[in-house]
Amino acid sequence: MTSTVTNITRKRGRPPGSKNRPGDGKNQSLTRALTLLERLAESPKGLHLTDLSYQLGMPAATVHRLLNTFEEMNFVEQDAEQGLWFVGLKAFTVGNAFLNRRDFAAIARPHMETLVEQCGETVNLGVIDDGEVVFISQVESREVMRMIVRLGSRSPIHASGVGKAMLANMSEQRIARILERRGLARFTEKTIDNPALLRDELEQVRQRGYALDDEEHAVGLRCVASAIFDENGQALAAISLSGPKARIVDARLGELGYSIRQTADEITRELGGYRPG
Question: Where is 48: in which H helix or E strand?
Answer without folding.
Answer: strand 47-48
